[in-house]
Specification:
heterodimer; A: alpha+beta; seven-stranded mixed β-sheet; five-stranded antiparallel β-sheet; B: mainly alpha; 2 helices; 7% strand
């Protein structure tokens, strides 16, 4: 009897347990599985690495580093006042600011990001409950100021804010990923089958620029010297491969270090070579001359009366530096005669001048792959005054950007094609496979090969015996044009006699152009002529850059150098 | 006979259980080892990235030029001081187009005065 009762009790107990098991394993199976999954699985957000930016030789210009950032969980911080006092001298932040952060009614607040390693070690040693350090990717520019205007910079959350970083944000950024993994009772990660991770990591694409680090360095160094020597306000040099439109160097001064943005004025960040138009002065005479030759209004030997160096236009007198009576068309261009340019423009008429200016890309964006590009200023002919045609012939009443000017000069250098300039040559995925490769993009052909040949001879004359003599290269043939544009004095609203923009635009070697270059020096205080200020800079840069590109002086055979064998540095001429 | 079969089955079952548990334990152990290696790999990757950053800084043309001038006393060659020699034209380098480029600086007492 007693044993029967015990058996019944045991049976009842087993039934109860069985019922409970049935409830947990069958009826509540989903709930249990979910709870188990929560305990065993962890999901973390993985920040993708931003794509790397390299120059045409593969030298890194923008990389990622891991930096430490300090956060606070205010509800977990026991004594905010004391914590603020102890951290203030280490973080070099005011106590009040820290206290405000520590007492916010939020679960998670950033205290300071991108903290230097020595400070990180001090913070780690303090071990204040509620405060924590986390590692996050941070953009780093190993070359500092080099090519900073073109590369631009990324913000604290690794988002592109300027330059290529902004323009190619969608490629560089990558996608955030949710990654799941299993963990044991101690929270340690367990090895999972490869298929277990929910989403494969999607890092940003890498960019290869057309920029050559060495060419860039030479341009920046010579520009900085020129700006310093002339006491100028600023300066810029843009170097382009005229056959392809690939930008080889993009030097602006003053410059800035994207690693220490706070130390520089926001004005220094401006990518002035695309954003800021300027009156080009006599460098624009290239377009007028090209139009006159293409339209057969002029030939190189056509005689033009120079009016002894002056001419009356709409009630004002235009002067030439030299009192010339008669000159050929070639001489007028080479000597940068204002009277000659005006007379040629008058022969062409305003419609044709306007048409050629548009054909050379002025008054419209070049469509370079950089943000913030300006179209410059080119008014429609119906808005021109009686003086506009002559002013435009001299490079006034029109504003161009440096990239427009160097692109226009490339038309003469490459046989007549207006190319679309570009700074990114290829986009690669994380395995190095090309996602996108850029080919040279001709837009249109404003002038014929014959016209470019004739104009090149004239522009070579300008360098050999004209206003651009100081741009003459040792061992190379160069062609180019000087420009000196008076700036508008903001006080008087009239052209200033002391504030000028001195420039030179040219290309070399003439036989097979490898570079087209614009040098702009803004408001030099010592000297003020383009031929005196900017032309020597062209010479210095070209003489150092051409050998680097594998072009020997004196017509020697082209030799192999790293730069010369780069895939995009050996383009085929576009001449038909 | 039946007892022997039963015993054999039980032994086999026991061995299978031991093997199963042993394999599972090995799996977990290997899993931890893999994770440790993954951690090491990530650390090496970070170290490599750091070294790459350092290399980029060290090869920065601005830095190289500055050190060349300040520590080695080098100067940028002026006009007439550089002679370009195409090695293809020299008899001892007639190996074809792969000859390296050499910039020959002509040190002439009358032309160049190095610091």
């Amino acid at each position: 009897m007693r044993s029967g009762i015990v058996c019944l009790g045991l049976l009842f107990g087993f039934v109860l347990i069985g019922c409970r098991l049935f409830y947990l394993q069958v009826l509540q199976a989903d709930v249990g599985a979910h709870q188990a999954q929560q305990q065993h699985e962890k999901t973390v957000v993985v920040q993708p690495d931003r794509g790397v930016i390299v120059d045409r030789q593969g030298h890194p210009l923008a990389l990622n580093v891991e930096v430490a950032s300090l956060y606070v969980r205010p509800p977990s911080l026991q004594d905010p006042q004391r914590a603020a006092r102890s951290l203030a001298p280490i973080l070099q932040m005011p106590v009040t600011e820290l206290r405000d952060l520590f007492t916010r009614n939020q679960p998670y607040v950033w205290v300071k990001r991108n903290i230097p390693e020595p400070i990180v070690k001090k913070l780690e040693a303090m071990k204040i409950p509620g405060l924590g350090l986390t590692r996050e990717p941070h953009r780093f520019y190993p070359k500092g100021e080099l090519v900073s205007h073109l590369v631009g910079f990324a913000g604290i959350d690794s988002q592109g804010l300027e330059g290529v970083e902004l323009q190619y944000e969608s490629y560089l950024r990558g996608e955030k990923n949710l990654v799941k993994y299993q963990r044991d009772a101690l929270g340690r990660k367990l090895a999972s089958p490869p298929s277990y991770d929910s989403v494969p990591l999607s890092t940003g694409y890498h960019l290869t620029l057309t920029i050559d680090e060495v060419v860039q360095f030479i341009a920046e160094a010579e520009l900085a010297q020129a700006v310093k020597r002339t006491g100028a306000k600023s300066g810029s040099i843009v170097i382009m491969d005229p056959l392809t439109g690939a930008i080889l160097a993009w030097a602006l001064h003053p410059t800035f270090d994207p690693n220490h943005l706070g130390q520089f004025s926001t004005q220094d960040w401006r990518n002035r070579a695309v954003t800021d138009p300027y009156e080009p002065g006599s460098t624009l005479k290239i377009v007028v001359a090209a139009a006159a030759l293409e339209e057969q209004v002029m030939s190189p030997d056509t005689l033009i009366y120079g009016g002894d160096g002056q001419m009356s236009v709409a009630g004002t007198i235009v002067h030439d530096p030299a009192k010339t009576s008669w000159m050929t068309f070639s001489e007028a261009v080479a000597q940068s005669s204002n009277v000659g340019a005006i007379k040629v423009a008058m022969e062409l008429g305003q419609d044709r001048v306007f048409r050629y200016l548009k054909a050379f890309g002025f008054g419209e964006k070049t469509e370079i792959d950089l943000p913030g590009e300006s179209s410059g200023i080119l008014r429609e002919p119906n808005k021109w005054s009686g003086r506009s045609l002559s002013s435009i012939a001299m490079g006034q009443e029109i504003a161009v950007t440096p990239i427009q000017m160097v692109t226009a000069m490339s038309v003469v250098a490459n046989g007549g094609w207006l190319m679309t300039p570009y700074v990114v040559s290829s986009i690669l995925d994380s395995h190095g496979h090309a996602v996108l490769t850029k080919d040279p993009q001709p837009k249109r052909r404003p002038i014929s090969l014959e016209t470019t040949s004739t104009l090149t001879r004239i522009l070579e004359m300008a360098v050999e015996a004209g206003t651009g003599k100081r741009a003459r290269l040792a061992g190379y043939r160069a062609a180019g044009k000087t420009g000196t544009a008076q700036k508008i004095d903001p006080k008087t609203g009239a052209y200033s006699s002391s504030q000028v923009i001195a420039s030179f635009v040219g290309f070399a070697p003439v036989e097979r152009p490898r570079l087209a270059m614009l040098v702009v020096i803004d408001e030099p205080t010592i000297g003020n002529w383009g031929g005196e200020i900017a032309a020597p800079v062209f010479r210095k840069v070209a003489e150092r850059v051409l050998p680097h590109l594998g072009v020997l002086p004196g017509g020697s055979p082209v030799i192999r150098t790293a730069a010369a064998t780069s895939p995009i540095s050996s383009p085929q001429p576009l001449v038909q | 006979m039946r007892k022997t079969v039963f015993l054999g089955v039980m032994i086999l079952l026991g061995v299978w259980c031991l093997l199963y548990v042993g394999v599972k334990i090995d799996m977990w152990r290997l899993g931890y080892a893999i994770e440790e290696l993954e951690t090491q790999r990530a650390a090496f990757k970070k170290q490599q990235e750091g070294l790459q950053v350092r290399l980029s800084q060290l090869t920065d043309p601005q830095r190289v030029a500055q050190r060349a001038q300040s520590q080695l006393g080098l100067i940028v060659a002026q006009e007439g001081q550089i002679v370009m020699v195409s090695l293809d034209t020299l008899p001892q380098f007639e190996s074809g187009g792969n000859s390296p480029v050499r910039l020959v600086r002509e040190f002439s007492d009358t032309v160049v005065s190095l610091p």
